[in-house]
Amino acid sequence: MSQRIILFIAAFVVWCLFNWVPDGAHLLAGIPVAAVVAILMGDLVVQRPQLIRHIRRYGYFLFQYVPVFLWEVLKSNIDVAYRAIHPDMPIKPGIVKVRTSLESDIARTLLANSITLTPGTMSVDIDEKRSVLYIHWIDVHTQDTEAATRAIAERFETILCKIFEEETGQ
Questions:
Q1: pLDDT tens, residue by residue, 127-152
Q2: Whole-angstrom Cα distance, residue 137 to residue 21?
Q3: What burial class does residue 2 get, using C-beta atoms within 10 Å of its C-beta: 0-12 exposed, 13-18 middle, 19+ buried?
Q4: What CA–CA distance (Å, rounded) separates 152 from 24?
């Protein structure tokens, strides 16, 4: 229960940051939003509550994951815009298989969401038994699973492993 309260507080703080400068109406609206997040996402976080207590993981998120994510979104936006305005519209869409070594549900969910939020790619399905994600890719370079993994997921997966799965160096 205490983990859900911590998640509620964290969600409420994030809500307040996104709605800066918070006024009474925004604060009041943030309470049910944070409660819903804590209820719906609580199981993902509560599986390994000891991870919440390690401040280094927050540093990995803020100073490694966020900059890499923003950089990849910027590059992808430019790439998709180029493809959209190019007279030949050079796209070769398709679905590729991407392997992941991430084991926790929250890490896999964040990986899938990171891929989906990057323009030109969209997570279609996760096969948990085989640790595979199926990704719709705007310009399929290869059907090889390992090459697709390197091109699409590896940059996120390395950091997410540090945040959600490594037990050492805490």
A1: 988 899 999 999 998 999 999 999 99
A2: 38
A3: exposed
A4: 42
Phi-psi region of 100 (alpha: psi -120 to 50; beta: other; left: phi over 0): beta
Question: Rounded to the nearest 10 degrees, how much is the dihedral formed by the CA atoms of 54, 166, 101, 7?
Answer: -10
Residue in the structure block whose two tokens are 């540093």 = 59
SS3 for 21?
coil
Q: Cα(138)–Cα(122) distance, rounded to whole angstroms?
A: 9
Reply yes or no: is the peptide bond before residue 37 cis, omega within 30 of 0. Answer: no
Nearest-angstrom CA–CA distance, 19 and 34: 13
Return the biggest CA–CA distance within the chain.
56
